[in-house]
Amino acid sequence: MVEDWLALIGGMNGAVRDLRQAAPEVMKAFGDMARAAHAGGALDQRTKELVALGISVAIRCDPCIAYHAEGAIRHGASRESVAETLAMAIYMGAGPSAMYAAKALEAVDQISAKAAKPA
Q1: Which domains does the chain have, with CATH numbers?
Q2: Residue range 24-51, pLDDT digits in tens
């Protein structure tokens, strides 16, 4: 089954917006934590997105895969760097991570193809 990763992002954006309205204090704290995690200079944003993508595979979170595949591509990750990241996720998460790594690579390929097309 092939997922539509960009549609998943679009659908989740609305759901997350609704959650922000329903639980504003918690979601503000989550947003603050995300900003803090992305701050600092020891790791560049591409590397941080690759780490997040690997963790997304290991914890088997489809929306996380979609968001961090998009983030990795936006910050210049190559398919090869994604593949090495996914190899580490498979190593850490064994068989179930291999299945989610296949999903993550599919997401990167779809999002890259969309990004390469002129608007």
Answers
A1: 5-116 (1.20.1290.10)
A2: 999 999 999 999 999 989 999 999 999 9
The closest of 104, 81, 80 to 5, measured between CA atoms, is 104
Q: The whole model's pTM is what?
A: 0.80
CA 69 – CA 83 distance, rounded (Å): 11
Average pLDDT over residues 103-111: 90
Cα–Cα distance for residue pair 73/66, rounded to 1 Å: 11
Angle in degrees, 0-180, between the axes of helices 5-22 and 62-74, rounded to the nearest 10: 110
What amino acid occupies position 87? A
Closest by CA position to 51, among listed 63, 40, 38: 38
End-to-end CA distance of the chain: 27
CA distance 100 to 118: 29
Q: For the segment 90-104, what is each residue's pLDDT rounded down to a tens digit?
A: 888 887 888 888 888
How many Cβ atoms from other residues are within 10 Å of residue 72's Cβ? Answer: 30
